[in-house]
Amino acid sequence: MNRINIQREDGFPVQRRTFDFLQDAFGSAIEHLCRVHGDNLILHGAVVGGTTISAGAVVINGELLPFEQSFIGGGGTQNARIEIVERTEPVIYQSGELLPAYVTRVARIGVGGTIPFSALRRIPRPRAQTEWVNCEPTTNITVVEQIQCRINEKGKVELRGRYWHGGDWGFMWDIMLPAGFIPSHNRQELIVQVGESPNTATIRILPNGRVMSSIPEVMCNQDFVFNISCEFDL
User: Fold this and answer.
1) What range defines the domain where residue 80 resides?
2) pTM of the model as a whole
3) How far does Cα 141 stand from its chain's mean position?
């Protein structure tokens, strides 16, 4: 991050460029951080309750803005549009002139809005890392090493375990994820490893936390111990 290096306690020539430099230094840093997750985001607050949306903070086109509590009426958020309002506070210069100086910008729902509120994506709060938790098989599989899940250091759900497949054609295995480990979307990929050769199968995670997958056709009618190893977002 850029900074001003002041060498002495007095005598530094504070000029307009000084304030421009300071604003650019922290402004660009905040913008880059905001764009990590996209351009239009809800950082916190902005919760719909009845006919209003609560105050909070949002990112609009990469810009961090306070969000004012807004009235949306009985129609809900379907037609709610976000507008950015800019307010300026003037100051009196030594010349006696009253000139605009302090500028504040806020986002709110308004008739002049152009950005649908529904276009904002809420950033989920990072989950703390957890210990491994057992997953219960719901089919008659032979578990070689307990199938478990946890939230890892990246905030993702990690799944591991080993089970034996006896070569049944079209065999499907499934387990139940414990409460707190069920993602908000229901399709991921996991790696099932046979010896040293990894093979990919699609898994489906149902809303109730049931994880289902079929054995790849090339591995049917064969006896293998499968290693389950995957991770997915909540």
Assistant:
1) 35-122
2) 0.55
3) 35
Phi, psi at 106, each rounded to 5° = -135, 155
- 3-class SS of residue 233: coil
At a CB cut-off of 8 Å and minimum separation 6, what does 9 contact? Answer: none
**142 and 227 co-located in one domain:** yes
**Which of 69, 101, 122 is the endpoint of a domain?**
122
If asked whether residues 108 and 148 sit together in one domain, one would say no
Same domain assignment for residues 118 and 142: no
For residue range 97-114, what is the model confidence (pLDDT) as tens digits? Answer: 999 999 999 999 998 899
Which contacts qualify for 88-96: CB closer than 8 Å, 24 or more apart?
none
The CA-to-CA distance between both ends of the chain, in Å, stands at 32
The pairing of strands 41-45 and 121-122 is parallel
